[in-house]
Amino acid sequence: MHATPARVQSKGTEHEVKCGIQMTIQEKYNHWGRASPWILGVNPRDAIMPEDGDDGFFPTSGNELKPEVVNASRKYRLRVLVCAPSNSALDEIVLRLLTTGLRDENAQTYTPKIVRIGLKAHHSVASVSLDHLVAQKRGSAIDKPKQGTTGTDIDSIRTAILEEAAIVFSTLSFSGSALLAKSNRGFDVVIIDEAAQAVEPATLIPLATRCKQVFLVGDPKQLPATVISTVAQDSGYGTSMFERLQKAGYPVKMLKTQYRMHPEIRSFPSKQFYEEALEDGSDIEAQTTRDWHRYRCFGPFCFFDIHDGKESQHPGATGSRVNLDEVEFVLLIYHRLVTMYPELKSSSQLAIISPYNYQVKTFKDRFKEMFGTEAEKVVDINTVDGFQGREKDVAIFSCVRANDKGQIGFLSNSRRMNVGITRAKSSVLVVGSAATLKSDPLWKNLIESAEQRHRLFKVSKPLNNFFSEENLDTMKVTENMEIPDAPSYEDEAIPVAPYGGDDDFGDGDADQDDVAMAEEE
Questions:
Q1: What is 461-512 written as a DSSP string?
Q2: What pLDDT score was predicted for residue 59?
Q3: Of the candidates 378, 372, 375, which has an alpha carbon nearest to the alpha carbon of residue 394?
Q4: Which residue in 109, 203, 265, 464 has the fewest CB atoms around it within 10 Å?
């Protein structure tokens, strides 16, 4: 936002730069010096910045979408298009920007004018969605008939809002909509988050906005793009542009310092997926330590072994699974946590994650029974795929698979595990069948890691016996105490509402469970 590119043309002439494979190393250095002078010294554009850091170039007036006053000597302003493959990943970025704002070159916080275009905007970012901003411009719904607003008028309002925005947020697919195609200005910079989760043709869509610079941000160790066709998958369609450039030797900058999670959460994925390259940001342990860590069963990393639970398959959803024992136990965890720590009763703080669509739907049905239409505001429930790029204070992960054959289907996907166990900042609580999951080497390593850290808890039926006051007392952590082996708990605890009836399957999430399981079986 604060590195405005210089004009390419000056007084009708272009500055030609020699390029190509014939350049000598000295010619390359000279070229780099002209193209990026800030590498060798002070950015010449920084040298002429006004002392107060604000000559009308930096938007400081919030999101009321009043036209910015641009100084006559600086008529050019950088425009940024931010994209992500999914709505959930996109809204995570929007929410963070709304929450924290940006900092200008003098470290002053401000909120740029932004607009989120597309469908399915999360309620937390509705204030900057295009539909909401258009409605504000037009007035209340009662006044619409009196105004006699035509479709053309609405288009002009949309265009005006987009033209005024410094940053536009869109999914990759929606960036190809007529809304942006009609724009006269285009974008200087395109930033694509979760770029390793997008097929290459989707990545190309926002590049048609005449951008001058592109940033691809992603993690090839996390989920790839969802590709339904096995023929297309086998032919390489699922390979992202990010991965292809990386495999071709294009320089990739790995950001090794993590500022999200407690070191105990970081430990296993760093060793398993990143060759122990991940480092913790300064003071991250203190920042992610919470009051509920005083109980071992709510520590930064826990595995609850529901060793006599059983999975079942939904008849109307090929391959999608449900495990009602895990549903009941996850609800017990939720009730106990929010009873003891009411601040967790918020969808911005606590998430329930599962790889299977039908398990997710079952959770949503249960919470809707308890909280009605407010359910989505008290807990965030989604699939692993739907949570990529997002984070919560506490994440409860329901594995679902529990059978005598040791079959775990697409749960064995290492990328899916990596995403599922790294969404939490302070506590990730994994609920599953250790006996079933241990058939997979990766899950076996995770369970053994939990066991070595005394974070493996065996849970027997009746499940509600686990969180009795007496057993919670035995799991209290006192300073300098030696943590004993994790026992099995079988006393009384808070009862939970009985399981409700099944509803028709179909939440429309872009997941691979149905397809993967159909292929396997």
A1: SSGGGTT-HHHHHHTB--TTPPPPPP-EE-S-----PPP------------S
A2: 38
A3: 378
A4: 109
| C-alpha to C-alpha distance for 84 and 90, rounded to whole angstroms | 5
Spatial CB neighbours of 272, under 8 Å, sequence gap ≥ 6: 414, 418, 442, 445, 446
E strands, 243-342, are: 257-258, 279-280, 301-306, 312-313, 321-322
Q: What length is written for the chain?
A: 521
The distance from CA 163 to its chain's CA centroid, rounded to whole angstroms, is 27
Query: What average pLDDT does range 331-359 have in this prediction?
Result: 94
Residue 444 has pLDDT above 90, yes or no: yes
- Determine the Cα–Cα distance for residues 92 and 96; give it in Å rounded to an integer: 6
Q: Write the burial class of residue 40 (CB in 10 Å: 0-12 exposed, 13-18 middle, 19+ buried).
A: exposed
Comparison of pLDDT for 115 and 509, the residue scoring more: 115
Q: Which residues contact 73 (CB under 8 A, 6 or more apart)?
A: 55
Helix (H, G, I), strand (E, B) or coil at 457: strand
Nearest-angstrom CA–CA distance, 141 and 134:
11
Percent of residues in the chain assigned helix, strand, coil, to nearest 5:
40, 15, 45
Which stretches of 381-487 are DSSP H helices?
384-387, 414-420, 434-437, 441-452, 469-474
Q: Report the C-alpha gap between 435 and 309 in whole angstroms.
A: 11
Cβ neighbors of 280 (< 8 A, separation 6 or more) are 257, 258, 263, 266
Q: Residue 44, preceding bond cis, omega within 30 degrees? A: no
Rounded to an integer, what distance in angstroms lies between the CA atom of residue 6 and that of residue 24? 26
What whole-number distance in Å separates Cα of residue 24 and Cα of residue 483? 63
Q: Give the predicted TM-score (pTM) of the model.
A: 0.70
The structure tokens 């399915």 sit at: 120
> Which residue carries 């872009």 as its tokens?
510
**How big is the chain by its Cα radius of gyration, in Å?**
26
Report strand pairing: 350-354 vs 257-258.
unpaired
Q: What's the CA gap between 160 and 175, in Å, rounded?
A: 17
Question: Within 10 Å of residue 184's Cβ, how many Cβ atoms?
Answer: 6
Q: What is the pLDDT of residue 7?
A: 41
Instruction: Record the tokens describing residue 157, joined without a space.
Output: 């309002």
CA–CA distances in Å: residue 109 to residues 16, 58, 64, 95, 104? 38, 11, 17, 16, 7
pLDDT digits (tens, 9 = 90+) for 379-401: 999 999 888 878 999 999 999 99
**pLDDT tens digits along 254-265:** 999 999 999 999
User: Residue 11 pLDDT > 70, yes or no?
Assistant: no
d(CA 75, CA 1): 15
